[in-house]
Protein: Sigma-70 family RNA polymerase sigma factor
Organism: Petralouisia muris
Amino acid sequence: MAYNNGRENRKWLIWKEAEEKILREHGVDETTIEQIRTDDRADFNSNRRFYHWTSDFGEYLEGMADREQNTELKTVADLLDEIEDETLYRALLTVDRRTLQIILLKMQGYSTKEIAPLVGLTTGAIYARLDHLRKKLRKIL
């Protein structure tokens, strides 16, 4: 889960107000309270930067793990072998090899712009092929 700056800031402000109230009740002068507040704020900001960084890093690692799981299918043959629905399998057997390569790359997380040079087509051609395949599969399935 991402680090929520706003929520943590509100929690810090509530804690800080309660602490300052106690300090005032015990007769601590305002300059000392202000100095404590400044020091605590600097510490809070330092911690916030750290937690924000670790949160981003954690999300990066989760994304890497997801990509590694998706890269198990390395070839079009692997893709076809994984299909359990016989109707879908037969429908995909009638599709040309390049469209199957596009599907495989999409499943691996590549964007259309990244796929275009890999398969030697324009992005528009890739969108068209995927659209034709969707229409074909809707009729069959």
Notes: Helices lie at 5-25, 30-70, 76-82, 86-93, 97-107, 112-119, 123-140.
